[in-house]
Amino acid sequence: MINLFSDTQTRPTPAMRAAMAHAEVGDEQRGLDPAVNALCRRVAGLLGKEAALFLPSGAMCNLVAILVHCRPGDEIIAEAGSHIVNFEAGGAAALAGAMVRPIQGDRGIFVAADLAKAIRAQSRYAPRSRLVAVEQTANLAGGTIWPLPVLEEVAGLARAHGLATHMDGARLLNAVVESGLSAADQAAMFDSCWIDLSKGLGCPVGAVLAGSADFIQEAWQWKQRLGGAMRQAGILAAAGLHALEHHVDRLAQDHANARRLSDLLAGVPGLHQDDARVETNMVFFDVSALGVDAAGFVARLAERGVEMVAMGPTRVRAVTHLDVGEAEIDQAAEIVARLAKEILAAGPAAA
Ligand SMILES: *Cc1c(COP(=O)(O)O)cnc(C)c1O
């Protein structure tokens, strides 16, 4: 199986497993796990924040940040395609009592002028605009990178209006490797920011949320309340430390592989790529010209040994990661091209 379903599909490498086996551990809940503490210090430094908190998942990082920033009835401004809006089971509403005002951006990115229109004037009638959230990179939009000046303008405007700012940095390190701009610079204007360890970095579990010391103190209480406090979690944190040491620079290979896949699929009849600009580790293409839907296409692809995912009725997503090499990209592209050709040859009725 060539698994391009997501960069969450990575398996811990033998070296990572060894690092985990040798982790020095303690009681995480009491602040006594040396590996967790080292990981938190490391990520706080990486993101230029005072403190950080180890959490089981990225979704919990978003949720805890929202719980700290917002009160019931508050409004979060986020891009319409963002993870917070689409893939977190309505956690902001269900657990923080916050509502979301989605902004339609361009390729997942909105600018200060868009934000200006979404910030509400204070009124007895309106919800309180409270938090602006951005997603670096923008997943559903194709792994696109928010340019630094846009991040600065958006966050600057939010701050000028007294709003808090949050960066969902699930793939921030992809943006760092591709742009050459440091994570700290990109996160500088954001009150909270997190990175995912269990995506392209290859860890089995974990994400790290960073912010001011006060923010993290409150976040700790939410972690406890939500049942996210752990015990000898250093086993997991050791994987994170290993990944930050060994798996960051190599993200460039994933980006090269995504561009390679995009190039190989570019000439395939019946497949239409949303946008030829593959910026990081994702390739999206549309299969409507084949007369099939994305779910059907992906199911037939899986029978031939390639996993991708349907993202919308006719859009298919492929994500590159450390368990997929160049040869497998070539193989996957060939299998996709052959399937597309067969569907076209069979005609619309057979599809
Ligand atoms: C995957 C993802 C999340 C959630 O992370 P998990 O670790 O899977 O919970 C949040 N935001 C974005 C942009 C993601 O891609």
The level of helicity is 40-55%
Distance between the termini: 24 Å
Provide the spatial order of strands within the biggest beta sheet.
Answer: 2-8-7-6-5-3-4
* Class based on secondary structure composition and strand pairing: alpha/beta
**Beta strands, count:** 13
Q: Return the average pLDDT rounded to an integer.
A: 97
Which stretches are low in confidence, meaning pLDDT under 50 for 5 or more residues running? none
Ligand names:
pyridoxal-5'-phosphate
Task: Sum up the overall morphology in one term.
Answer: globular
- SS element count, helices: 14
**Main beta-sheet annotation:** 7 strands, mixed
> Strand fraction band?
15-25%
Give helix and strand order, one letter per element, not per position. EHHEHEHHEHEHEHHEEHHHEEHEEEH
What's the alpha carbon Rg, rounded to whole Å? 21 Å
